[in-house]
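Colleagues,

For the teaching module next term, I've prepared a clean inverse folding example: a structure given as tokens, and then the sequence designed for it. I'd like students to try predicting residues themselves before seeing the answer, so please don't circulate the second half yet.
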């Protein structure tokens, strides 16, 4: 059976109710609570690129939180870190171990390419530092278990950065589901589509990037050695040597939100994927279109990811009592009775006299009270963007003081990452793959 993820404890939801015909619209307002624990949290950040700069900018606005150092292999991001913090004297370095060695660093934020996650997390835990690491947790299945072991061995807080797990909307979806709003889930549909070069990671490399201001050989880590390449530095998600493709970039958000909403904490039993490079044949080796069917203890979960056609992002949960659909800023609950609303059309195959007898009997058992027909009340919950960084960062910083577990810990983050690894394995092997818990490996039979 699936394990339940701990409920988050740091958001308050204020509800304003307005009634519009047969719909109910409720507003969920999330707010950062004042710390119940005294003292500032001082952090260092490793990686100040696209995601890291956003993390840093959000973190320094939180009360009682201070950045005391930044590490990046590209010198231009040292300047950026000083600009974001407004601290011209901020300590910066290319060598992240210098942050881990500092006594004034309480914890770490890490936003580095996927192929660096395991090394940074393990090193931080071994140095006695709690760490917030961007998603996906790992670059390979085996790495995730090394990270879990490091966290447990050193009694460290590890939080993975799929931030919707800490959103007011995700909490409301979880509450609705566990209150029985749709009954037991029977199927899940997850979807996200983009249609732009930037959305497909075709980012412009820094204009001054060179081997003089970037430690290229170190950046490659354990990946095959290749000559300095600005496109690979900026667009690393396009290559499996450094990233995990749309699975690790996009799917992991959808999977993490689903796991938290349903209270599951597990890897899928199997995955079968199809896809290809259709829109961006630019030298990348990760697909720009990826469709996956997962088996979660018998429940089908279908995921559709596309970088060549923009479609609305949603997570749709289907059950016998209705449908719950979550998007970036809303949850819509559509209750269903599951009952016939008129005589069965199958009676059209009856002879006329038999059909009339059946219809008369059905109508006598389902009397209509004209003017008092039942009205289905759809419900709409609206709130802050479920990918807002601040609530998720706040959870982490508070946990570093309280030592209370975080919802998206290393075990949870590993389960979400394993789904992405299985989707990629199925795509490259062109067959269904299975998770073998005993050997902790992806297998094909």
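(Answer key — instructors only)
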């Amino acid at each position: 059976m699936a394990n339940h993820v701990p409920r988050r404890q740091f958001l308050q939801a204020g509800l304003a109710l307005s009634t519009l015909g047969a719909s109910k619209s409720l507003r969920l307002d999330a707010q950062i609570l004042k710390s119940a624990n005294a003292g500032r949290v001082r952090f260092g950040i490793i990686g100040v690129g696209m995601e890291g700069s956003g993390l840093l900018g959000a973190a320094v606005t939180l009360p009682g939180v201070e950045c005391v150092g930044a590490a990046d292999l590209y010198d231009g991001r040292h300047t950026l870190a000083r600009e974001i913090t407004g601290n011209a004297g901020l300590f910066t370095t290319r060598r992240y171990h210098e942050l881990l060695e500092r006594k004034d660093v309480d914890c770490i934020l890490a936003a580095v390419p996927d192929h660096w996650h395991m090394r940074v997390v393990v090193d931080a835990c071994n140095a006695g530092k709690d760490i917030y690491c961007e998603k996906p947790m790992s670059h390979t299945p085996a790495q995730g278990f090394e990270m879990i072991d490091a966290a447990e061995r050193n009694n460290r807080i590890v939080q993975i950065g799929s931030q919707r797990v800490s959103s007011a909307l995700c909490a409301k979806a979880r509450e609705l589901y566990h209150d029985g709003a749709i009954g037991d889930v029977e199927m899940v549909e997850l979807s996200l589509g983009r249609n732009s070069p930037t959305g497909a990671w075709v980012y412009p490399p820094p204009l001054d990037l060179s081997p003089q201001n970037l430690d290229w050989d170190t950046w490659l880590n354990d990946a095959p050695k290749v000559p300095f390449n600005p496109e690979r530095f900026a667009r690393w998600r396009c290559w499996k040597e450094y990233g995990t493709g749309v699975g690790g970039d996009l799917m992991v958000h959808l999977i993490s939100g689903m796991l938290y909403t349903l209270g599951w904490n597990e890897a899928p039993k199997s995955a079968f994927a199809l896809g290809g490079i259709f829109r961006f044949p630019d030298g990348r080796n990760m697909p720009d279109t990826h469709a996956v069917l997962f088996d979660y203890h018998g429940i089908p979960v279908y995921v559709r990811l596309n970088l060549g056609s923009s479609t609305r992002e949603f997570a749709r949960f289907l059950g016998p009592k209705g449908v719950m659909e979550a998007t970036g800023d809303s949850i819509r609950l559509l209750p269903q009775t599951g009952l016939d609303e008129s005589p069965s059309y199958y009676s059209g195959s009856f002879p006329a006299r038999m059909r009339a007898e059946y219809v008369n009997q059905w109508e006598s058992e389902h009397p209509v009270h004209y003017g008092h027909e039942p009205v289905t009340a759809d419900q709409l919950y609206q709130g802050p963007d479920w990918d807002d960084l601040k609530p998720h960062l706040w959870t982490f910083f508070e946990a570093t003081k309280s030592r209370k577990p975080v919802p998206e810990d290393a075990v949870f983050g590993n389960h979400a990452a394993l789904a992405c690894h299985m989707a990629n394995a199925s795509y490259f092997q062109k067959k269904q793959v299975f998770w073998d818990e005993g050997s902790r490996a992806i297998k094909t039979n």
